Amino acid sequence: MGYVRIFPDVTTLAIAAAEQVATLMKTVVAERGIFHWALAGGRTPVSLYRTLTTASFADLPWKQVHLWFSDERAVPHDHPDSNFRMVRESLLDFLSLATDQIHPMPSDLSYLRQGAWDYARCLEFLLPQRDGVPCLDLILLGMGNDGHIASLFPGSCALHQTHQSVVAVYVPGPCTWRVTLTRPVIDQAGQVMILVSGAEKAATVSRVFVSAPSCPPLPVQRLAPQGEMTWFLDAAAASLLPPSLGVTQLKK
Q1: What is the reported pTM?
Q2: DSSP letters spanning 121-157
């Protein structure tokens, strides 16, 4: 399930995650001249985004970066629940990016299925591909209490999508429509980073790494990344992991 890094709190987690993003961004830009990154919504990534806008990361090559999204809710982009709004307020408002460097997911409910199809075509047009699947350099994800990643929830037919890169999906629990990247795209990314914080996630984190064979796999356990996958956990989220698991404890 990837390499695990554990930190005392969200602040140190965010700094380490920002350092990994920065290193990868500079490396890829130096090699290919462009960096494609899919951003995550949720609470924990906010600290990462804000860290990347500080003076310590002022030398990042943002002019060569294209920003995509891993998922979005079917709400206006200025709605409090919008992932785009959160990213704009915590990251984009502090950068000088051209409009064509930022790729918001569609959020108009009347256009959602067609919008998902169009977003997939845009990914396929602008990104390199492997086995017909667009390859992002980095995908950032969070994980819900139920083990969902992006908007791939337990029991969702989107979990089994193998042909479309992006799909519209209805989420029964919160009764919302969303747009999400699918597993094939996540699996083909150069790197996947999963950020998880909070004691309320501890039981799910434990199940991910020490689940019983009889338990159905959580959405995050269905990933089969071809590149590197790293978990960034704060101490609260990792509190139920057994010491024998062999994770790396970092205290900065």
Answers
A1: 0.94
A2: HHHHHHS-EETTEE--SEEEE---TT--BTTB-TT-G
